[in-house]
Design brief:
It is built from 2 helices and no strands. By secondary structure, it is an all-alpha fold. Helix 1 packs antiparallel against helix 2.
Length: about 50
């Protein structure tokens, strides 16, 4: 689960940077943001489950 969250975070950041630097690929910005949010939610779920 942690590995998947890290991979999602890296892919999301890469797409976010591509979306910022390449004007023609603005949709990558949104896809990157969505993937980053999914990765953060996955990390939070793991953190919450570990606490209980």
């Amino acid at each position: 689960m942690t590995g998947l969250a890290v991979i999602l975070l890296i892919v999301g950041i890469a797409l976010l940077l591509l979306g910022v630097f390449i004007e023609a690929a603005k949709f990558l910005l949104w896809i990157g943001l969505i993937i980053i949010v999914i990765a953060v939610i996955a990390w939070l779920m793991r953190f919450i489950r570990r606490q209980t």
